[in-house]
Predict the structure.
Amino acid sequence: MPQHHYDLILAGGGLANGLIALRLKRDRPELRLLMLEQESRPGGNHTWSFHDSDLNTEQHAWLAPLIGCHWPRHRVIFPERERRLQGGYTSLLSSTFAQALECALGDALWVDTTIAALEPDRVTLEDGTQLTASAVIDGRGPAPSPHLFLGYQAFLGQEIRLAAPHGLQEPILMDASLAQGEGYRFVYVLPFTRDTLLIEDTHYIDQPVDDDVQLRHNISAYAEAKGWQIDEVLREERGVLPITLAGDFEAFWNEADGQPRSGLRAGLFHPTTGYSLPHAVRLAERIASLDDLSSPTLFSAIRDEAQREWRQQGYFRLLNRMLFLAGSPSQRWQVMQRFYGLSESLIERFYAGRLTTLDKARILVGKPPVPLGEAIRAARCSSPARLLSSYRYDSTPSRN
């Protein structure tokens, strides 16, 4: 019979819980861990990326075995600006991540397992099995909340094999030199090998729309325009990342009712880019450093981490409101084009979430690429209630 009491149960095998598990296995191997994942493998079907400057030297070192690809520079393309930036860029592949978790956890990883109910110290499975633990961390992705006012970054990506080498030397993080539609649209390209690419059609939009047929067509058209002949689609990934415009932090965390959370469910992500890996790395380190892994201690520690991030991210939420609520959605690309005319060091600090006071002033100084009156109105709306009243906008996600 399996052991039904554990030091820690990780509900969900995504990025945040996976990094917690790997860090605890490295630093606290005596702990009785259990990970529950409803799919056949942990990690899902994702590519997680980050800028080299997002992490410190020690963080890079412990993450190194998970790295799929690294490039010393990257590129962005806009209608009136093209730029190559020297900052390094790194991607983790979910297949490598899944293999690392399978090796580290062994029998402590339960896949094809559906959770029926979850509490801070116990889990009930669909078949009625009861599991108890000193703590349970809920890392099953974002959950709808009336206390967050959100936009969305929706994307569909295909990893493709080409009939001939593509010739790219670095990733294209944003190619916005194409038809925009109702929101900021760009194509994201990662060159994994000389003849394989990940191409993602990405949209910053008010509400995510399920139109996979159109997104696949967009990817095919982009490849054709670049002169790339697709031989095979190796895999496909899709996602919708929350982009935070405003929120009530206290009310959002009161909803948790003492339940430790991780990842997107804890609100731990960059509010403008949606990148979550640096936050997941820091949370894993924080949890591994705790002597007490009881649910009250974990809840308090994770909430404190999230609150620290929330306080630091107020300026990013203001920028998001200007991006989403000021001017025409089809002109949002102008905001990003202007941003990428700033210094490389400022851009690095933006992605790392470490803007200085001077950086913040520099981003806003000069003629804004959106109507000034609308920008001021959007900037002043800092509460979900006011935004809902002013813009009559539904912030409930339609899907994870």
User: Anything to note?
Assistant: Confidence is low (pLDDT under 50) at residues 392-400. The radius of gyration is 21 Å.
